[in-house]
Amino acid sequence: MKELHQGLFEGERVLYNEHDLDIYDSTFQNGESPLKEGKNIKLHNSFFKWKYPLWYCNDVFVENSVLLETARSGIWYTNNINMINTMIEAPKQFRRSSNISLTNCQIPNAEETLWNCENIKLDNVTSKGNYFGMNSKNIEITNFKHNGNYLFDGASNIHIKNAVMISKDSFWNCDNVVIEDSTIIGEYLGWNSKNLTFINCTIDSEQGMCYMDNIKMINCKLLNTNLSFELCSNIDATINSSIDSVKNPISGTINAFEIKELILDEDIIDPKKTKITTEV
Fold it and tell me: What pLDDT sits at residue 223?
């Protein structure tokens, strides 16, 4: 590995197609795509101030570094990237990339981040922005905090543990999702999705869980949730709270502490196909 220390790198493609670099305490500015087509690149305590810093790269390690807001669209078409203790201030990060690992990272402007990516691991990540994770797949997440609408639209094969997610229209058009020990706040959760499982979750979602197939809820609470389960099929839900209202489920089982309003329109669904029980 060739070591570079305290570099100030300027100009377009300044380290283009470089391999086997170990870069310390350096700044990249005033030039697009400084490390484009790089391979086996390690970055320590370094700063990116311009656009497209890590496009078409392979085998990248980044620690204790910062991508400033001006490093927009910074990581596209890149494979095998591991980022630790890094601040990612720029939007539109990670597009059509794979094998992404983020640990102890903050993404305060996560607009349109992690689109069309696969094989993603996030641990202790905080993000804020709309359309995070759209159309991505094979995602493992622990200790996650997110604020922003349309979270994981169209994504698949997701496992999330210990998260707080504030997001309207989250998990739409998804397939194969498991969420455990988490809090979700936002309207219209999970529409048009299939094979979703919620375990030990607290959910506040106006008109949440509608137009879904194969939804399982274990030991969950539904707060401020009305018109839920509308036109859902294959429901298996155990709710340890009151539900404001349930509307026209197609089939399955719903057990709740209380359902304040139950709407069953026999000209739309067959009520006999859903078993509904309450504790009170």
Answer: 96
What does the pLDDT look like over 227-255, one tens digit per residue? 999 999 999 999 999 999 999 999 999 99
Q: By the 8 A CB rule, do 12 and 33 touch? A: yes
60 and 79 in contact (C-beta within 8 Å)? no
Cα 50 from Cα 67, distance rounded (Å): 9
**How far, in Å, CA of 17 to CA of 107, rounded?**
27
Coil, strand or helix at 168: coil
Tally of helices (H runs) and strands (E runs) in the chain:
0, 24
- When computed from its CA atoms, the radius of gyration of the chain, rounded to whole angstroms, is 22
Q: In this structure, is residue 130 part of a structural domain?
A: no
What six digits make up the tokens of 207? 């008109």
Query: Structural domain tally of the chain?
Result: 2
Range of the domain at 3: 1-122
114: DSSP letter: S
Return the amino acid letter for 100: I
* Whether residues 153 and 280 fall in one domain: yes
The greatest distance separating any two alpha carbons of the chain, rounded to the nearest whole angstrom, comes to 73
